[in-house]
């Protein structure tokens, strides 16, 4: 039978020690190990431009994103909740909308974004159009709504990043909610002066193929103007935590430098996958992510405790709760690129704690 102190030590192995900050090399190493590759794939840019991410791959990626969002917001109280109506529609077609949100000064200082929700009002389908559709497609009444973040780069080019997706029925009407937390997080990383937040909303068939339903043509969302005036306009809800009131969340003050006297806290670190040379053409989603790292110092036990428990090392600031990072990658297979979803564990720090080597600390590993 193992000694009690040894059992404690085995149970409390740290997820990440101090100084184990997530770097470009660590991200690449974890991704290659997960894919069982010896080096980063090299894909031709022309092949990637012709690449279409299959619907089932997108659905799997979105499902993992939604699980991650749920893990981040669970158990937190919202200290602020406001709505911002879209400034305008740049595009208003049957199947695609480009929404513009002017975000400057909408997120208060000393706050943490917990969740961002895009709310769209689905207009009721006229009864005559609905009866006609039911005669042609009696068993198909759903369409897929997808929201993407649109980033206009400095050189004028742009890229879109998949944020959320859900099915809607043509028999329903009213408000539909999509989680766009990652889009706002991406927007926050842009250099100032920041461009508006651009969200591209598209309505597509639930399934592809020659016998696919045309239910997506019946789905309409209210816009600005006579048809969407008033409170049916697209809305963006931002849920935030005031870190001055909820300092127990353990986030560092972004305006205060970390010094020897800084208490253990979680510091924001943005990993820009889009800017990494090795990720070109084969890492498709996401363009980047907030990883965070644990920094600062912990109060040490008094001397008598050190002699009583000689196996305990100094208390250190470590990650006690983490979440996984879902990604869409393209791997060469049989001379052609094949897309797949991969989930890298322990990539984002959710909570930092103080713990000694060998001392128990509650740990949570989020999916």
From TrEMBL:
Keywords attached to this entry: Cleavage on pair of basic residues, Cytokine, Developmental protein, Disulfide bond, Glycoprotein, Growth factor, Secreted, Signal
InterPro entries in the record: Cystine-knot_cytokine (IPR029034), LRDF (IPR003942), TGF-b_C (IPR001839), TGF-b_propeptide (IPR001111), TGF-beta-rel (IPR015615), TGFb_CS (IPR017948)
Signal peptide: 1-21
Location of the protein in the cell: Secreted
Domain TGF-beta family profile: 241-355
Gene3D superfamilies: 2.60.120.970, Cystine-knot cytokines
Main localization category: secreted
Keyword Nucleotide-binding in record: no
The family this protein is said to belong to: Belongs to the TGF-beta family.
PANTHER family given in the database record: LEFT-RIGHT DETERMINATION FACTOR (PTHR11848:SF226), TGF-BETA FAMILY (PTHR11848)
Protein name, UniProt field: Left-right determination factor
Protein species of origin: Balaenoptera acutorostrata (Common minke whale)
